[in-house]
TrEMBL record:
CC cofactor: FAD
Organism (species): Vicia faba (Broad bean)
Family as reported in the entry's similarity comment: Belongs to the MSOX/MTOX family.
Record SUPFAM superfamilies: FAD-linked reductases, C-terminal domain, FAD/NAD(P)-binding domain
The protein's name in its UniProt record: FAD dependent oxidoreductase domain-containing protein
């Protein structure tokens, strides 16, 4: 088939969630002729980038994420200043866990190593710090830092797409990619009226569809498991709504222990607080149940009743929103060249495991640098290489 009549792009990005949209922005900003493709409508609710909010925090047990998050704070501010509207809302961040929990211990150690300004709190200090709104068991500890905040999710994707277009990128939705061919550059085949697109390089950021598309292109099976998860909103009891609001002093938070939970202050829905379990049910992204039973719902209700001093109604969430995770076995990202016949012409960004959104600005910058320059100085990619998996073909 002759593809020569089609326009040639410097970079074609497949998947217009937050990672693909950020990549398109960074690539277009460098003057590259950029095309961003999305299989569904832009800003759809079938993947991992929609919804009202995501937390941003720097308290990771893994050492390699701290620098990426700190860079992301600056890049979020830079991008929203260019867009002219706000997507990042500042807050403190509070971690809580049994004091001997290995994840919590690693978080504290990383804070020390990176000279993060933090407060390590016992139960009575937590009660005092949060004026009776948070309680932890006697054998737990809390860690409070200034590096928290909330990202408005769908609004952030809109921001990157707007900035990409402002820098000359071409954006096309309802354009499902069926294959990528190597012809010295890349040819991207789609279902959209038989349209094919030719480019020098390509970035694949298709979220929960990554394993399916990569297997179709290369025959290689990557261990990236789509999960369906539920984000739950709970009603704050009458008279206490302001005490859990982001414009007060209530933090974003995460809790380790029997169940791993996270949440945000009240922001998007006044009178409601978001608390969810960091887990989900395995699914096929094209055949998901839509409204799966919440994972560990009883444990979450028990946690809410114990941690928020009875000020939040823990009987049942008043709202549930379904979302997708793309989990790797070690919960680290996949950021690497696809290799094989494609060499360095195709870069994969995938497996963000329910914690990548906050780092979207720097991940997009890394993916753009890899596909344009063939390298990046932003991070040591050894933690994110495909080769760490034993892949089957």
């Amino acid at each position: 088939m002759d593809y020569s009549s089609n326009p040639e792009y410097d970079v074609i990005i497949i998947g217009a969630g937050v990672m693909g949209s950020s990549t398109a922005y960074h690539a277009a900003k460098t003057g590259r002729k950029t095309l961003l493709l999305e299989q569904f409508d832009f800003l759809h609710h079938r993947g991992s980038s929609h919804g009202e909010s995501r937390t941003i925090r720097a308290t990771y047990p893994q050492k390699h994420y701290y620098g990426l998050v700190i860079k992301s704070y600056d890049l979020w501010r830079e991008a929203q200043a260019q867009a002219g509207f706000k997507v990042y809302y500042e807050a403190r961040h509070f971690d809580m866990a049994p004091s001997n929990n290995s994840t919590f211990v690693s978080v504290v150690e990383n804070c020390r190593e990176n000279n993060v300004d933090y407060q390590l709190l016992r139960r009575e200090q937590v009660a005092e710090k949060f004026a009776g709104r948070i309680d932890i068991p006697d054998d737990w500890a809390g860690l409070l830092t200034e590096h928290g905040g909330v990202i408005r999710a769908t609004k952030a994707v809109t921001m990157f797409q707007t900035l990409a277009r402002n820098h000359g990128a071409v954006l096309k939705d309802n354009t499902e990619v069926t294959d990528i061919k190597n012809d010295g550059g890349v040819v991207v085949l789609t279902t959209a009226n038989g349209e094919n697109f030719r480019g020098k390089k390509c970035v694949v950021t298709v979220g929960a569809w990554a394993s399916k598309l990569i297997e179709k292109i290369t025959g290689v099976q990557l261990p990236i498991q789509p999960l369906e998860t539920l984000v739950c909103y709970w009603r704050i009891k009458e008279g206490y709504e302001g005490k859990f609001a982001i414009d007060g002093d209530f933090p974003t938070f995460a809790s380790e222990g029997k169940v791993c939970l996270y949440g945000t202050p009240s922001l998007e829905y006044p009178g409601l607080i978001k608390v969810a379990v960091h887990s989900g049910n395995p699914c096929d992204p094209d055949k998901r149940p839509w409204g799966c039973a919440g994972v560990m719902m009883d444990e979450m209700k028990e946690w809410l009743e114990g941690r928020f001093c009875g000020l939040v109604d823990s009987s049942e969430p008043v709202m549930k929103q379904s979302c997708m995770y793309s989990m790797t076995p070690d919960e680290d990202f996949v950021i690497d060249f696809l290799g094989g016949e494609f060499g360095k012409n195709v870069v994969l960004g995938a497996g963000f495991s329910g914690h990548g959104f906050k780092m979207a600005p720097v991940v997009g910058k890394i993916l753009s640098e890899l596909v344009v320059d063939g390298e990046t100085n932003e991070v040591d990619l050894k933690h994110f290489r495909i080769g760490r998996f034993s892949v089957a073909s």
